[in-house]
What we know:
Elements: E1 10-13, H1 23-36, H2 43-61, H3 65-79, H4 86-98, H5 110-120, E2 124-130, H6 133-143, E3 151-155, H7 160-169, E4 177-181, H8 184-194, E5 197-200, E6 220-222, H9 228-232
Parallel strand pairs: 1-2, 1-4, 2-3, 4-5, 5-6
Amino acid sequence: MYLCTMNVKVIAFDADDTLWDCQSFFFNVEHQYCELLAAYGDEDHISQELFKTETANMEELGYGCKAFTLSLVENAIKVSKGKIDASYLLEIQELGRSLLRLPATPLPEVEETLRAMKESGRFRMVVFTKGELQDQQNKMRRSGLVPLFDDIIVVADKTPEAYAKLCNRFSIDIRELLMVGNSFKSDVEPVLQLGGYAVHIPFEYMWAHEHAETYEHPQLKTITHFSELLSLLGINSDTEYI
């Protein structure tokens, strides 16, 4: 398996659920949240209402832990019709705040693969992620991966315009960009539509807002092991896939 990337100069990596696990922590918080609100509905109902609240808030609040926490509190007030006790709201706030401390431990094969890519000297490497600036920067620091990248870029959303600005920042054409990430909707499709390259690494957990239909494309590869990037790019490695 090989991806023809002879023209690629910059490789951009998504962060959450590509470099480290993030979504499972959100799912765990949501589960605890639904248990706290059990008096006002079953888990499916509470989760569905939370999804509606998040969706309605997205344009103003964007993505990330802080936006999620505000939606948790607002939704609790809605589903309880204002009857929820303040002590529960404080507990919900702390649930959301706990997401600001998730460990950001690199997923298997990530650190050694990134190191081999950097040592090859063939590409500039950048983290290109969406969310809240300070939270994403803190996770990067906790991950220990910062020295392996040329830049860390956090955007409000991964729109085609954001990808175009990324290319301008590095003075490259979109055909010289390879994007690596777990979300087809955010990491793959916009890049393919613009004419760039993408590698899709599906993660076991997916946020409902990121669900999208996948498809094949000559400038796209889908892999299951992060270390497969090395063979895709023609970088020598002794890594064995399990």
